[in-house]
Amino acid sequence: MIKIRNLHKSFGALQVLKGIDFTASEGEVVAVIGPSGMGKSTFLRCINFIEKPEKGILEIDGIEVDAQTCKEKEIRNFRMKASMVFQNYNVFKNKTVLQNVMLPMTAVQKIDKQTAQTNALEYIRQVGLTDKIDAYPSRLSGGQQQRVGIARAMAVNPKVMLFDEPTSSLDPELVTGILEIIRRLAKEHKRTMLIVTHEMRFAQEIADRVLFMDNGMILEEGTPENMFINPQNERMKRFLDQLK
Ligand SMILES: Nc1ncnc2c1ncn2[C@@H]1O[C@H](COP(=O)(O)OP(=O)(O)O)[C@@H](O)[C@H]1O
Ligand SMILES: [Mg+2]
Using only C-alpha atoms, what is the Rg of the chain? Predict the structure, then answer.
């Protein structure tokens, strides 16, 4: 379970998140949609404390932190509950596929090397990269690098997975393969997922719930049916019309 209350984040004078409240139950898949520059990435990055929010109470799986008062150690524990898949993959260029997937387990979670390797190999298999375990990212396509990103995020066994536009840096012909992997993970692993995406058909199909973010707030949320077929909010209607 993830619960976020009154989340605020600014960059200098720019207020990006203006008091977000959000809850998702275990295994729920939530798609986050909305125009560019409206705080979708910042929202995910604050959940994983890649950016530190100024204000807000965040809870995942019974671990709660108050952004205004939390200590480094609390943040470290909290961060282990979630993992992120980035738009630009963020794989380590000087490490092989296997090393990339093992690293968060050995460095952050302090899992012993043997167990980390066994886990890594299993997740690498699930994303279809077994024949590339010793390859460096420079030898991989964008789609393959993103598979590494997904395996790495899965391998730490997170309660919540955060996907920030996982397909928007990919050539069109590689998008389907990645969406298929995410779809399969969502089904087989019953993990809570927050997925920022511009792939509306994918969002409609995979999500239990859709959030529309605009101007640092959640303007509308609901089931995919309600959100895509019968949106109530004018801005959301306009946003969807633009994509047609
Ligand atoms: N590290 C940062 N420093 C300054 N401004 C930032 C930073 N990250 C994001 N922003 C600004 O915050 C706003 C929201 O960005 P972002 O969360 O990336 O939006 P989205 O993902 O919805 O496109 C934008 O105006 C962006 O320029
Ligand atoms: Mg973004």
Answer: 18
Residues 107 and 226 in one domain: no
Same domain, 13 and 73: yes
Helix (H) or strand (E) holding 205: helix 200-206
In percent, how much of the chain has pLDDT > 70? 100
Query: Which one of 9, 10, 14 would you pick to mutate in the ligand 1 pocket, going by the greatest count of ligand atoms within 8 A of its CB?
Result: 14
- C-alpha 156 – ligand 2 centre gap (Å): 23
Residue 151's pLDDT is what? 97
Q: At 139, list the tokens.
A: 């030898």
Q: Residue 18: nearest ligand to its CA?
A: 1
The number of the ligand nearest the C-alpha atom of 86 reads 2
Q: In the structure, which protein residues have their CB atom closer than 6 angstroms to any atom of ligand 1?
A: 11, 14, 16, 36-42
Which ligand number lies closest to the CA of residue 50?
1
Interval 176-227: pLDDT, tens: 999 999 999 988 888 999 999 999 999 999 999 999 999 999 999 999 999 9
Write the CATH number for 211.
Answer: 3.40.50.300
Termini Cα distance of the chain: 34
Gap from CA of 163 to ligand 2 centroid (Å)? 10
Nearest residue CA, atom 27 of ligand 1?
37
- pTM for this predicted structure: 0.96
Contacts of 4 (CB under 8 A, 6+ apart): 20, 21, 22, 23, 47, 56, 57, 58, 59
Q: How many CB atoms lie within 10 A of CB 200?
A: 18
